[in-house]
Specification:
The chain is built from 13 helices and 16 strands. The protein is of the alpha/beta class and 418 residues long. The protein has two domains: 221 residues, Carbamate kinase (3-Layer(aba) Sandwich), CATH 3.40.1160; 116 residues, VC0802-like, CATH 3.30.2130.10. The strands form three sheets. An eight-stranded mixed β-sheet has the order 3-4-2-1-7-9-10-8, sandwiched between helices. The protein has a six-stranded antiparallel β-sheet with strand order 12-13-11-14-16-15. The chain has a two-stranded antiparallel ribbon with strand order 5-6. Strand 3, helix 7 and strand 4 form a beta-alpha-beta unit. The longest helix is centred in the N-terminal third of the chain and has 20 residues. It is globular, with a radius of gyration of 23 Å. The chain starts with a strand and ends with a strand. The relative contact order is 0.10. The chain binds adenosine-5'-diphosphate and aspartyl phosphate (PHD). The site of aspartyl phosphate has 12 residues, from loops.
Amino acid sequence: MLVFKFGGASVKDAPGVINLGNVISAYADKKLVIIVSAMGKTTNALEKLTRAYVNGSDDMNGIFEEIKAYHYNIIKELFGDNHPVFDEVANTFVEIDWMIEDEPHDDYDFIYDQIVSIGELVSTRIVNAWLNHQGFASKWLDVRGYIHTDNSYREGVVDWDKTCKSITGDIPSFLESSIVVTQGFLGGTSENFTTTLGREGSDYTASIFASCLGAESLTTWKDVPGILNADPKLFEDTVKFDELSYQEAIEMTYYGASVIHPKTLKPLQNANIPLLVKPFMHPDAPGTIIKENAAYTFTKPVIIVKNNQVLLSISTTDYSFISESHLSEIFGTFAAHHVKVNMMQTSALSFSICIDYSSERFMPLFQALKATFRVKYNDELTLITLRHYTANAVEQITAGRMILMRQTSRNTVQVVLK
Ligand SMILES: Nc1ncnc2c1ncn2[C@@H]1O[C@H](COP(=O)(O)OP(=O)(O)O)[C@@H](O)[C@H]1O
Ligand SMILES: N[C@@H](CC(=O)OP(=O)(O)O)C(=O)O
């Protein structure tokens, strides 16, 4: 039994969906669970729609119409006119119509999940219909009845016992007669509300399914040849890793290598299930295999770039030392605002923390900290992490830029740059 994950880039248009069908046709003798993300940049568009709805913006209907037209055009290109999937997708979009007719609920994260989740619900309808149209027996599954989470909207915490029980209860029998197609990124609460697992969380969904089902392997089909030493969109002359250990890959994703969601690897490592990262345009290429005891010599440093960073400098109002109780209060405030710390450093009189900028989360966090502390910040910064670094590589990457914070350990250098 294999689990495949197809991300937004792989199904961004009709040729992408056709290619997905071609990729899986080589695995006709296998039992397959296929996890699919929203098409192309739909999640970003749905985020924009959510903001427009909550802010009462005039462009709300225009944004929604564009999202619908994008999907209807793909359906038309795949199936022509009058295929039943058109109604399935239209009925799914109606859930947004109902929501935006009413005044916004006061929990932004709740609204976000109910709207943004529609991206995966419609993409999987289209992919499932295409696979059936191509003669595969394919079953569409609503993942919200299988991935059970608490009600932490936008970062649902998975109840693993309940989730594995649901998955192992139903899926093996479905796989006897069909491929299973379901949504990445989504979960459901015990009150049947929709949650999401955090941006780019479809890799994590695939890992949950693979782990609960004891899959032979999980393959994530990407628009890159495999895992490279750096993002090829930012660096030339990248090298591909043929193999990586779970540990190295976990470190890379922890520091922000966006090619794999950070929560993906641990469940796979625990169950000793290899993760293959392969190019969806060249399905026969070997890609990268992540497994225990992988052999690789790092001839070039691994470079991880995180843009849009904010560096906060926090000090006490009376300029006394930063004590443990101050730190406890600071971390409590970060946790309450669901903001993750990327890098931090203490000195006698101030505490510096580097975080991702988020338009919804930053200002409320800043105001909450300001209630007790003196707080300054610098934004539009870049956090660069080099693993297996050389002095030369650090010099090259920081040349001509101001270093606002730096940390060095035996294997890793991190710098916050302006
Ligand atoms: N070290 C890396 N190796 C390969 N790709 C990387 C790396 N770091 C960042 N990326 C980026 O990750 C992207 C693929 O991940 P992602 O967009 O999440 O895929 P998908 O949404 O299709 O699952 C690539 O297009 C590439 O720009
Ligand atoms: N569609 C969601 C979940 C996801 O994982 O997408 P992708 O696989 O395209 O990164 C997002 O964009 O966050």
